[in-house]
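[scheduler] slot 2 assigned
[scheduler] job type: sequence-to-structure, two independent chains
[scheduler] chain ordering preserved from manifest
[runner] begin chain α
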Amino acid sequence: MYAQFQINLHIPPSISAFPRSTSIYKSDSVGCFQSCGCTDCSARQALLKHGGYTGISMELYCTSRVETEDERTSHPDQQCSLPAKMAKKTQSPLKRKLASSSKKAKVPRISTQRKTPPFPSESEEPSQPWKTKDDPDEGPKSLRFFPKRLPGSQVDPSSVFSPLELFKTFFSMSTVRTLCENTNSHAAKNICMGKKSKWTDITPKEFYTFLGLVLFIAQIKARAINDYWKRKSIFSIPFPGTVMNRDRYKTISWNIHMSDPDEDVINDRKKGTPEYDKLFRLKPLMDEIRLACMASYHPHRNLAVDERMVASQARNGLSEYIKAKPNKFGFKLFVLADSSNGYTVDYAVYIGKNTFPFGFGICYDAVMSLVKPSFLGSGYHVYLDNYYSSPKLFKDLFDIKMGACGIMREGRQGFPKSTENALTKKSPRGTLRWIREGSLLFVKWKDARDVSVGSTIHQAYGGETIKRKKNKNGKGSVNSIPVPTAISQYNKYMGGVDLSNQLITYFSAHRKTKKWYRTFFYHFVDIATTNSYIIHKEMCKANNKKPMTHKEFMEQLVAQLCEVSLDTKDKPKNTGHTPVPIKVAKDKSQKASFGRKACKLCITGNNRRNLTPWKCNECGVPLCVIPDRNCFHDWHNLN
């Protein structure tokens, strides 16, 4: 008797052998196995090896004789045997491999079945269809703007502050004094370790001079630091040598330290433990600059959150790679900036997944850590790119009375999946679709490609248009197409961090350093100078005065840090080689003989010591000027 049966391979691990109802049907590609139900059956071994517990669908064929119930009961321990006709077929390599698997008592690891999401019940409401720009949108509930302080500069607007005074709001005297103490301790430690360098303790006054030279070098570029102290060359730069010698400048730059060296040793012993602080060497200055940024200025309503890359080739586990950034390699900072002027309000250095304490993902945590209602107030508008935007973040920001808008990836959890009335590939440029879920608006707009935006601030469409070129008959024509309100406002206010980065790069003090943490020191100087200039512009705007340009501001700051005048006196014009008296006699009777010296030419040429009251104005050499002995003329025409 022969029969065909189908096998269900989803076998629970508790079953050690197939039940007697296990069925097999014919498959020439796998082999012939008898369905006897015994534990050593090669069919069972084949199933175990080829997917018995993995949930893989599998089909087997059997042309062997099906035993009767009497035969099974009379021979319970009898192993299955194959008919003689099928003996040759079992000699194939695959069948030998399957047959030999019974000798190996290894059972494959049992993997749990993947849970499939349940089908939606019929009682669930269907997803919303996408609406067009012609459909009315009431918009979200308006958030009232209540800042904690009056937006703008927090420095007294009635007073006039110099660039140095604004800079000292960030690098205060106490901050510089701490830097000097840590730098002196670090230099003394290096000398004790055997480093050969001359060191005298640096004072706050000298440190400000050093910062002035750092900013001077940021404005006038040279290929190497030594070029700023080059002499006797047409490429010489005279100013740095008049303020500080080259070796002293280089020694200070080698020993700058922001933290206490003794505490660094204690922190280094904690490596590999949760107590270890990766940013310990930055913390003293980093925290001072952050607090100064927040204390000196309160942002306007529109804010932007984005990453900033500080270029570095350091390999210490903190460096990142972002392909879309101008500086692809370096340290990543999350920055909160005022969209109106690029002021750096707050920032955080990225150190990995443990950078923030919230635990909802680095994108969510970064925004929630920077946007603090306790400092800002309520009613602010935060603009984000697609790296940060998510429906959960926007709803949570709205719950703390903060509006949000940004480009959103369609794969984010919570983004509408409806296909009813959605955009298609053939939709014309300017077509938009939207769905509102309470306070959160989702918009899809057709431009050169599909753009998806989320917002808790704007309505779907307010009548805005944007110009786009359209090729027609080989000639470009400009057409106006509809644009969603959220996208037009996003393009206007999202560039706050990019504007801040742009202002920093104009006169950046950044340079290569041997120690990775000194890269941050120069970046903190850049933040201080850029924010100082923005405060200067805000104060001039409040007092209806014309502000200085960025270049003029930096030039005055360098001069004030180095305690020199910005304007230098012109050298007197060269009058040429002319004879002048060596000394002017007060007594008229001594005019011919007062202050006479031996003529230089008479001594060297004629070996005579003739005295003369005249010298060359340019050379300073005493020379005879008389009718019969004009040594002045002969000296200058000697060569």
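[runner] end chain α
[runner] begin chain β
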Amino acid sequence: MALGKLQKVLISDSLDPCCREILQAGGLRVQEKPGLSKEELLREIRDCDGLIVRSATKVTADVLEAAERLQVVGRAGTGVDNVDVEAATRKGVLVMNTPTGNSLSAAELTCGMILSLARQIPQAAASMKEGKWDRKKYMGMELNGKTLGVLGLGRIGREVATRMQAFGMKTIGYDPIITPETSATFGVEQLPLEQIWPLCDFITVHTPLLPSTAGTGWVPARGDLEGGWRSPPPLTATPCAGLLNDSTFAKCRRGVQVVNCARGGIVDEGALLRALRSGQCGGAALDVFTQEPPKDRDLVNHPNVICCPHLGASTQEAQSRCGKEIAMQIVDMATGKGLAGVVNGQALSKAFAPQTKPWIALARALGTVLRTAGKQAQGSVQVCTLGTPLREAGSYLTPAVAMGMLAGGAQKEVTLVNALLLAQEAGLKVTTTHSDVDPETDGSTGLLEVSLPGTPHRAVGTVQGSTPVLRELNGVTFKQPAPLAGPVLIYRAKASEPSTLPVLAGLLAKAGVQLQSYHSSGAVAGEQWSVVGLSAPLSDLSELKPRVTEVFQLHL
């Protein structure tokens, strides 16, 4: 995937006109074709660099496979449940969303649902339209003094909590990532799930649909809109018992009211219907369903259920905001300004920062050097960052090393998005460590060390200015750091061999190739390494090979 080369973007769902306008103003060609069939989408996507969807388009593995030039899928909304993130990652396609675009709209709908449950407003309104005047039937409850359990304390969850506190509700909640100290700042007391169930008069869920939230438990993952949830399951995954299921309903206060404006499947619909029929659940408000639209109408038709056709983001403000945000994110990507809302390529987002670009180039170069010198693209690779400036750099340097190790292999295009996944599939295990101690420099820049455990192959480099340089190779230190950029010839020869340089000079003259730089290492066991920067690769090394122990060319 070539960053900054986006040209054509397909919008396959209905979005605010500002989305198209911003993309066009950013120099991109835009095709806006909402409502495409699967077959039509497969045809239209072939020559597109970007795809923008809302909820209707399902970006499945076969759609991604048909997209020969696709670089990015942008979802104008929260979550990416309709995108096969694993398939996109494998192909090196970036997936991004707009995690803040519909937060307020979804939070306000949730609050409206809570109010509607408390006062049975939809049922009373429907009764009036039938010509009835049934005041006694629709006796409600006050929210003041009631306890609201908020499961998921990301942006939407906290917006709901603060709004319902204005009605005098006590808010308790749970989130495996947000700390109790943080949630306390917006008035939510965090408790273990087992303590939450029996305390709540109302429960509202604000998590993504993951195996952990569609299953019987919840394992740690970041808050619903904080941008760091694990990728959703493949689109073919079979739904299982939700976070609210028969077991958890049995632990709840009798008559508990449940709201789900997040994702269908987080609340087990079968368990919810059973709880409603038994009276264990006093009412439910649903904006989302496991299957949309729902074919089984038992839940929809239950008298104590309020439901909407997935309206959480259906406000003019949210649609405009999401359309604007995803368009600006894609234009920023196309122009090299940066990345936001990234779901599967956090390492790639670092590639736009001027200070990290040369380090990423260095990591890829060291990986390429070791793959060639070590003659292996399988087994273990150890990446070690040294020095406090690189304390957080492993997250983006490790995929870059993997890119170098896989370069020229059987895999298709390897990018920072898919490098670690493809490395794993190729039998390459890449591990990362860090030490604040930088023994070889003044500590102001740091060092990157890449090695093949169990072998003598080890490369150490740093960045000088904006240039990646090699400091050490296989235990031998260079007298002056050797630049790793462009066409590079690397060879090992006897330090006492006088004819190597004249032969190399003759080859360069014969090929019309200019010598850009020459750096040699100290001698170990009578041999030394040389790194030669060239204006172009040499096509024939046959005259040089008899005079060296080993030689290889790279384009870095």
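[runner] end chain β
[qc] chain β: The two ends are 17 Å apart (CA to CA).
[scheduler] slot 2 released
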